[in-house]
Amino acid sequence: MQQSLLKLLKGKKWYHQRFDGCPMFIGAIAEAETRKESRKPTGCIPKVRVGFFEGGSCDWYLDMNDVMSGAKELVLKAKSDPKLSEKFFRVWKKDEQLFDNFFWGEFPKINLSGLSTQVLVKLWQRYWRLAVARFTSSSIIDHFALGTDELIEKMLKRELKVEVSLKETDFTRIFSIATAPVHQSFINLAEIDLLNIILGKSKLKLAEHRKKYFWTKNNYITAQELDIKYFEREIKNWQRSGKDLEFELQKIRETPRRNKRLKQKIFLKFNLSKHIRNLIKISEDFTWWQDERKKATYYNIHIGTKILSEIAKRTGYAIGDLKYAVSVEIPDIVKKGSPAKNTLKKRRECSMFIATNNKIEFITGKNTVSQVKNIMLGNKSYDDISDVRGLTACSGRAFGVVRIVRSVNEIGKVKQGDILVAVMTRPDYVPAMRQAVAIVTDEGGITSHAAIVSREMGTPCIIGTKIATKVFKDGDYVEVDANKGIVRRIKKYVKK
């Protein structure tokens, strides 16, 4: 490994995310985020992104120096420009529309098996250009989302004079309201549409609903093309739930409007400054933009998997192995069989990549990857720690048994009344989030998935603890005091 790359990894504070993912589709984000271009403001062109891959999961690391540099620049711009987010939307609108049009309009009409291999490779390259151009805004979204939560919290505390005229618990409630989303997520829109079908309020047929939402269970490694039977099961689950479906529909539909009303009351009551109101408005817009990006990543995984499946048939590579290549390698895989099948298998077993402004470099093998990880992160023990602190996303208090979820494959172990603890949550974690009486994450800001969903559900949630998944173990009995942002171990699990 080059010393210059090693130098990029040493002595940094890292922001950690974990999800089901592979180098190919994480590589799209890495390539897009590190790309230099004039549309990105200062601080939003990161020097490095790092991904570790093993067992179908990805540990994704962002340099906090990059994140905070971008966040501070965006906060500064927001001071003088309340329409900052709207300007970003206009700048990226064309690329976003081109990619959406390709997904919904052009791609479904292409008969992949009827293309010559040469044309298939050209299609791959064109698709990838569209995807990367669509995602170059990603670093702006991430740097704002991950870097401004603490800045906004500090500013709000100063303006509300916490510890002088306002209690910490009151501030937690106000902060939760002030940063709540005011737009419907695509997951909620899908739920609203389905409930309208069940209640006979929609002209949409189930087959049309399926066509509209078949991609919603994708993640960064797996494309699941949902069939009509999946949605029939969803309908049966709602009907068997015993819930008042009319009430549930209104609750989902009204939550953003309710958030907006509560927020306006806080603005009026405490006479918040124009700067903090601008930041909160931009945060709302970025929450919507982040959701649109998530939706587009699901589109991307559907298209990419379809083309890779056709390439796999023609080359003899396993589709699962091809996902451990990166896009620039696809033409050589088709033409020359390079990288070799065995190389991709080794990456699949255990690998990492380091993405910089001009390339993605792989390191493979458990021992080598482990050595680099230790250089990058160090090796710290958390055995003596029994409580962690974080940012309250949704206030409340709960007691329960810890269930650490590291992958969508583990969500089934969360039972009613458990405490869900994860590095971060994603849309495919929602079934487990519904079972949990509280949610705790290592990472995530005020626009994170855990923050948004917990508020919608009214479930106590603490985000950004940094170390919850390291401190607690499956079976620990804990108290989640989201009124104060503290998680305490009450009883340690002892294996019998």
What does this protein look like?
By secondary structure, the chain is α+β, with helices and mostly antiparallel strands. It has three domains: 3-141 and 289-377, no CATH class; 186-256, no CATH class; 387-489, 3-Layer(bba) Sandwich (Glucose Oxidase, domain 1), CATH 3.50.30.10. The protein contains 20 helices and 13 strands. The protein has helices at residues 3-9, 23-34, 64-80, 84-106, 117-135, 138-147, 149-160, 168-178, 186-198, 206-213, 228-240, 245-270, 274-315, 319-322, 330-336, 341-349, 366-377, 430-435, 449-457, 468-471; strands at residues 14-20, 49-54, 57-63, 351-355, 360-364, 387-389, 391-394, 397-405, 419-422, 438-441, 461-463, 477-481, 486-491. The strands form two sheets. The protein has an eight-stranded mixed beta sheet with strand order 6-13-12-8-9-10-11-7. It has a five-stranded antiparallel beta sheet with strand order 1-3-2-4-5, sandwiched between helices. Helix 18 (430-435) links the parallel strand 9 and strand 10 (438-441). The longest helix is centred in the middle third of the chain and has 42 residues, at 274-315. It starts with a helix and ends in a 5-residue tail after the last strand.
Q: Which secondary structure elements does this structure contain, and how are they paired or packed?
A:
Blueprint: H1 3-9, E1 14-20, H2 23-34, E2 49-54, E3 57-63, H3 64-80, H4 84-106, H5 117-135, H6 138-147, H7 149-160, H8 168-178, H9 186-198, H10 206-213, H11 228-240, H12 245-270, H13 274-315, H14 319-322, H15 330-336, H16 341-349, E4 351-355, E5 360-364, H17 366-377, E6 387-389, E7 391-394, E8 397-405, E9 419-422, H18 430-435, E10 438-441, H19 449-457, E11 461-463, H20 468-471, E12 477-481, E13 486-491
Parallel strand pairs: 8-9, 9-10, 10-11
Antiparallel strand pairs: 1-3, 2-3, 2-4, 4-5, 6-13, 7-11, 8-12, 12-13
